[in-house]
Design goal:
The complex is a heterodimer. By secondary structure, chain A is of the alpha+beta class. In chain A, 51% of the residues lie in helices and 17% in strands. In chain A, strand 2 (129-130) and strand 3 form a beta hairpin. By secondary structure, chain B is α+β, with helices and mostly antiparallel strands. Chain B has helices at residues 20-34, 39-43, 48-64, 83-95, 105-118, 121-132, 246-257, 260-290, 293-324, 331-353, 374-380, 382-385, 391-402, and strands spanning 137-140, 156-159, 163-174, 181-187, 198-204, 210-215, 224-235, 239-240. Classes of the chains: A alpha+beta, B alpha+beta.
Chain lengths: 373, 415
């Protein structure tokens, strides 16, 4: 689908509003509650709030009850969520679920988008590869007009709290995206506790799960390409998460270096530490640029794949590096549970491995260069 | 000097073997026969009680042959091994995947060497035998405002009729929650120039006025603590070294942190790299299909090279110590390189093992940075780049004391 014309003023306003809302809701507080074990797995209180604010409708056309904005505006929200390592379920339903529906046929869009835009029906998406580690696709075969699904999917974001799951399948109909109800018979959702407690992943087991004909998300274009675009969206989302996170990490690192004194002066006055901060800032700016390039590719209708790989690989690595540098520069306190640094570092590490590790993305980029050389 | 306690068991012949190869053979057989079976499974998610029990159990087994204190004199209950043989012990224990003695390590290494060289006869008599029998110590050095700038410490020890009254706060004290004794630095003369008013004192942690609070680390473990001291009375005979000479005493303690203990960890890295190789091997079909297999091979080879070099550096420095009785500032290079190689190795494990490495698992207590839980080993690695002297400070030491580069101009008058 084509992106709407970018409106940078709207984007800035939306980003401000998102930041104000999240800061007013405790900033990193909700993430801390989950990390510290005070908030159990399952829906986080803010999940309902962002639905009410219309965040699920950002990219949904006005005719289907949304704001009619585009990927740039989505990214603005994702940066803010990344800044506070928000545990709100967005990677699944907001990034991938809405993305799968936007690329579907007109009938499917009319049928499903209005409820999705309100956050009333949340769709997780189970893809079948995460870059280097390929899995066998969930197998699909004919079942009357519909489909019968068997197999497994791994590390699916937000499956536990979703209302429906879009599953990428392979089988007699080739590649497809099939919607399965969260409480479908034969579907087992197995929560996977991760070291990064701000994200919720689950494995899926499908044992003779049936779906009607209208559950097949057909749409214009090749299904394999639609699936690939979902990977692009995921990569973009993780890059946005990284950019937001890097900004906060750099900010609290600078604050520390300016206030902590040793040897009679602020430790930020030591050249070695200044240089590290400059490098962190460079990583921030470069990640922002890469993210913007990827957004531009969507908006200009050009090839999103390389731009998303660049952003994912670079910003993903940068986030880990910046968070790790922060832990070092913070000294002893950076090593403690009490400080937020480890929350960012753990989120950065998970993000680095999801939807293609950096090495995998760089290989894709290298291959492209060689093909066109 | 006399031994504080009797050793119950006979010394096995291989401990005194004339050649190192026979020593190694005997040691290897002993480890195989005596290492606690299945301890890693037992220690996964183990309770505090079970963890302490395993530490005690392994301590007792090593003690039978003096290997818990391999470098200590026989009269103090150690194995009195040459440096080369101490290194062989480190190698063999590491490669056998034996547990690490964590809780007793401060007592056995840092405090032991300090008391041996700086302690009074009474202090050595009272504590060295006890340490070798399992008395647990912690260090009370760093404070919230005195980390890299340790000499800026503010805990005071005011003279009283019987000794000193201590007030202040210590932080990052490893294993203090298990310790009965603390080697503490405090200001006995706050008006003296920086470093010249500090004394080293033995503090019994069971005295009134002491609160020990464990600090939770990013890994979820609590291996170090805050210590709060309020009007803690300490007898005068607990001074280690002369009054106001504590800074010099502390240098010895700090240097001991970087000694053979690092060799233990370096050898354990070899175990970790094997784990990494095994992991990558299992994943190679996937990695090759994805086109990243060669990158994995190259990185693995690079890490192998790095760890081999680190081992060689360690052995070289050990050789210097044996020949010349001490290692110069070059020893800082070992910690510097180890503390950077460790996170690189763990980071490679996190990346190549992929999402499987992100799954949360209960900690295996008793492993230190070589559990094979890549992300926990990675998170734990900052204990080395920050603890015991930050890598930044160590680089300054190398630059200024080894390479002779000029110090940065001082902009503030030292106290």
């Amino acid at each position: 689908m084509t992106e709407p014309t970018p409106d940078l003023q709207l984007r800035a306003e939306l980003q401000d509003a998102a930041r104000t809302f999240l800061d007013g809701s405790g900033g990193i507080g909700p993430a801390r509650a989950v990390v510290d074990g005070e908030q159990q797995r399952g829906a986080v209180p803010l999940d309902a709030a962002i639905a009410e604010l219309g965040w699920f409708g950002v990219e949904v056309p006005e005719e289907q009850g949304g704001l009619g904005a585009g990927v740039g505006e989505l990214v603005a929200h994702l940066e803010e969520l990344g800044r506070v390592t928000s545990p709100v379920a967005t990677l699944g339903p907001l990034v991938l679920g809405i993305g799968a529906l936007l690329d579907a046929s007109d009938e499917q869009r009319d049928a499903r988008l209005p409820a999705a835009a309100e956050g009333a029906v949340r769709y997780a998406v189970a893809l079948d590869a995460d870059g280097a580690h390929r899995h066998e696709s969930v197998h699909s075969r004919r079942d009357g007009d519909g489909r019968r699904l068997d197999g497994r999917a791994w590390f699916v974001p937000d499956a536990e709290t979703s209302d429906a799951i879009v599953v990428a399948t392979a089988g007699e109909h080739g590649r497809e995206l099939v919607v399965v109800d969260r409480d479908a018979a034969g579907l087992t959702v197995v929560p996977v506790p991760t070291v990064d407690r701000t994200r919720r992943l689950a494995h899926l087991e499908l044992d003779g799960v049936t779906a009607g004909a209208d559950a097949v998300l057909d749409g214009p274009g090749d299904p394999a390409e639609r699936i690939a675009r979902l990977h692009d969206r995921a990569a973009l989302a993780l890059a946005a998460d990284a950019v937001g996170g890097i900004e906060r990490v750099l900010a609290f690192t600078l604050e520390h270096l300016m206030s902590r004194e040793q040897f009679g002066r602020p430790i930020g006055s030591f050249q070695a530490l200044k240089h590290r901060c400059s490098d962190m800032f460079l990583a921030q700016e470069a990640s922002r640029a890469a993210l913007q390039n990827a957004v531009d590719a969507f908006e200009q209708g050009s090839d999103t794949r390389p731009a998303c790989s660049v952003a994912k690989a670079y910003a993903g690595d940068a986030y880990v590096r910046v968070a790790a540098d922060a832990v070092q520069l913070l000294g002893g306190i950076g090593f403690t549970w009490e400080h937020d640094a480890h929350i960012h570092l753990k989120r950065a590490r998970l993000g680095q491995s999801l939807y293609g590790d950096s090495a995998w993305h760089r290989v894709q980029l290298g291959r492209r260069m060689l093909e066109t050389a | 000097m006399s031994a504080a306690t009797e050793r119950p068991t006979a010394r096995p012949a291989w401990l005194d073997a004339s050649d190192d190869a026979s020593f190694r053979d005997g040691l290897r057989a002993w480890i195989a026969a005596n290492q606690p079976a299945g301890w890693r499974e037992r220690m996964r998610g183990a309770s505090e009680e079970d963890y302490v029990a395993l530490q005690r159990e392994w301590f007792e087994v090593l003690r039978e042959v003096g290997l818990h204190a391999a470098n200590w004199a026989r009269e103090w209950g150690g194995a009195e091994l040459s440096l080369i043989r101490q290194a062989i012990v480190a190698e063999e224990l590491a490669h056998a995947g034996a547990p690490q003695l964590a809780i007793n390590s401060v007592a056995l290494h840092q405090v032991g060497v300090t008391l041996l060289n700086e302690g009074t006869d009474a202090q050595r008599e009272r504590h060295l035998g006890a340490i070798v029998d399992g008395e647990i110590w912690c260090q009370g050095f760093s404070e919230p405002a005195a980390g890299s700038d340790l000499a800026a410490l503010q805990t005071t020890a005011v003279a009283t009729e019987t000794g000193f009254r201590i007030n202040g706060q210590k932080i990052w004290s490893s294993y203090a929650q298990y310790a009965t004794h603390c080697l503490l630095l405090a200001l006995t003369d706050p008006s003296a120039p920086k470093r010249r008013g500090i004394s080293a004192l033995i503090v019994d942690l069971r005295a009134p006025g002491i609160e020990v609070r464990p600090i939770i680390q990013s890994t979820g473990q609590s291996e170090f603590c805050e210590i709060f001291l309020t009007d803690v009375e300490v007898p005068r005979e607990n001074l280690v070294g002369a009054e106001n000479d504590g800074w010099r005493v502390a240098q010895r303690t700090l240097a001991a942190e970087r000694g053979v203990h690092v060799l233990d960890q370096v050898e354990r890295l070899c175990v970790t790299r094997t784990l990494l190789a095994q992991r990558i091997e299992a994943l190679l079909p996937d990695l090759d299909a994805a086109g990243t297999g060669h990158a994995a091979r190259e990185e693995l080879g690079g890490l192998y090279a790095e760890t081999e070099i680190l081992r060689s550096l360690c052995w070289r420095v050990l050789g210097d110590v044996e020949r010349e009785g001490g290692a110069g500032p070059e020893a800082a290079l070992i910690k510097l390189m180890y503390s950077e190689t460790l996170p690189r190795l763990a980071d490679a494990g996190v990346r190549w093992a992929g999402l499987a490495a992100q799954i949360a698992r209960p900690l295996v207590r008793g492993t230190e940075w070589e559990s094979g839980d890549w992300i926990l080993d990675y998170l734990g690695s900052w204990a080395w780049t920050v603890g015991g002297g930050t890598s930044e400070i160590l680089r300054n030491i190398v630059a200024e004391r080894v390479l002779g580069l000029p110090r940065e101009p001082q902009t503030v008058e030292p106290k």
